Amino acid sequence: MLRAWKWLTFCGTELIWDAIVEANYLLRKFFLHNRMDEAMELMRMAPESLGADYFQEKFPDVEVPIRLLDAKYEFECYQFYFEAINRYDEWQKQMEGDQAPEIPQKLSDERWARLDIRRRTEYEFSVKRAHDCLQKYYRLVELYKKRAVEILEDILKAPNGWLVASPLENNEGPEVNFNFLNFNKIVNFLVVERSHDFVEIRKNFLANLLELLINIHTRSDEPLKVLEIGQLLVDPTFYLYKVFFI
Hints:
Shape: elongated
Number of helices: 10
Distance between the termini: 35 Å
Structural class: mainly alpha
Order of helices and strands: HHHHHHHHHH
Oligomer: single chain
């Protein structure tokens, strides 16, 4: 299935619409059924130029269709999710991989007095080096934490919400003339199905992102930040509580 989709990206501008729409359809179903390995594989296969920017580059005098802009937005939502997971994994590896350097035990006055100048110098140097390594370790942990928190909050606080279906104009889409089929009914069915999929995906995967954010602040000993996440859930600006409770 993924190989079949890949062929759409080899056909140039003729099938750019189909490539991004079908990529979104596959990703939507992968997310819906929690087939994340396949979703990640598709993201790796997708060319960086896929989307409305590519359409505008090839057709500079043609206004980008609303449906293509909406498809680009959906594709970017999946990209942001995987980027958030990657940044969280980076932070977790830094936290669990390399242990924080240990500072040499402080010497007693009696033991210090017994050391000659050379050994005192060596001891002071080892303490300084350990402090430098410890500071470097904490800076890296803080850097990875900041990167992870930043994108997690960006997704949770997205102005229009993460993976929210946008209203589309009725006249958008290909002109099809079927004598035996009501095309509008098919389009409406697909729009409703897509919106329903979004609701289910948001419920599961926003909960996952919230859990990751809580875990970061909990392990970083930041209880006030954890409370802020609770406040974020009920903040009427973002309506996150509606995702889970309505």
